[in-house]
Amino acid sequence: MVSENPENDSSFMGMVGSFEKMINNPFIRSVLKSSTQYCEADGGNRLEVALELYTGKRKHACVKCRFTEKVVSFVMKRAGQTFGITDEKMQKSLQSAYWRKGVATTVKGLALFGVRRPFVPGAPYQIVWNITKACNFNCLHCYENAGRKDPDEATPEMIMQGIEKLARAGVTSIAFSGGEPTLLPNMTDYIRRVSELGMYPAMASNGWVLSNEKIARKYREAGLQFVQISLDGPTPEVHDSFRRVNGAWERAVRAIRNCVNLGMFVEVSTTVTKYNINDVPKMIELSRSLGARWLMAYNFIPTGRGREIVMEDLEPKERFDLLSMLYENTSKGGLELLSTAPQYAMVAQVVETQKNLGKNVIPTHFQNPQYTNPKLQQLADFIGGCGAGRFYMSVEPNGDIYPCVFFPHEEEVKVGNLYRDDFDKLWIKSQLLKDLRNKDDLEGACGTCSYKYTCGGCRARAYNYYHDIKAPDPGCIYNEKEWNKLKMELMVKNGAEELPSGGLSIKLQ
Predict the structure, then answer these.
(1) How far apart are CA 167 and CA 406, in angstroms?
(2) What pLDDT is attached to residue 32?
(3) How far is Cα 113 from Cα 108, in angstroms, rounded to an integer?
(4) How far apart are CA 397 and CA 474, in angstroms?
């Protein structure tokens, strides 16, 4: 990441270096590593117990946890000095159980992996759990090939065990998806358990069931904090044809209104393709009028059922222009405009440099939060780009684990299984995850790009097109030559034709 103030860079990196020396101190590192264990006496991860003591949420604990609190308190104060955060602000943020779990996972990451670029936490901040393949829709782009429930899906008892296993590992948030999670009779029980264990419960839905206000209220009462409702167009004609269910748009809009009125954090998700890219401005207006907090422009990846509509994938220039428009209009009217495309961070930096919008952003994978403390902007390289296998992972209905939901269900990219494997060992030892986290080993333009730490390209897109997690992301404007070459190769191999829109009439084999 290039800064206009090398002097500030030098000062900041000096502070980071000082913080790194402290973390690498053998005594502190040893204490932090031992604190990653679960304490049966206090019923929690030692780091989480220590943070409860630090914030006054807990008065009593075993000797080991009390000792851990002394070390954690010292680390927190030094971190605050490094990044310009007062102890008072730190204490205030940590009143939330979700924040404490997130900070504990961050400290665990420092203990296990040290200060590295990009940063690796001690557990995924988020698990996207495709809890069932059962679905009442038949969406064209579905990465899960959802429809009927699979015979090997986990039982309710296994799911509860899995939730507790992820909580012990230090996972901060579980986002239930599918299929359609609201079709499961025990779904509110799972959400309630996630909340009870101090994790942040979220859910992605097509909105059909949540359009019933009484049912939506039950989810809110169970502890559901965040809900993502899919809406792929500003009109029924666009959305219903994409989802292949009549009445889907009307139900989704009603579900959004219900969840907003019930006080949930509502995100509208739109998978942007050539089919609906021109409708995005109207989607922004609609999402704002419905009271949503976020509009997430999903980066279409040709996986699952989406492999059959690869011709609808955006050209690199189309994606760049879309992300530029989103960045320039984000936060207007209280609506954040986000994208799962890691290039959003790169675009934010390019647009800010060209137009000097004065937004003061920390470019990250999902969001570009504004800041008032200039030291925090330098954290972007450490937060760093595509988070697959680093900030998040996905779990399938049978417990199989993948780096993210957009990876195909192939053995080569399977991390392990939630029920059969040691989750902590997978997180620390998996060679696949190590490879995904290494931004210095990327190939093509992604490997030499100055934005590789804040972007690094979508690894799932690279794998789905090239069958190689280190390959360049053909969706980026800096890889336009690769995209054009790829189109020609696919056309020759599959007898494809280029459409007037620029799309390809092919199927990936």
Answers:
(1) 24
(2) 84
(3) 8
(4) 30
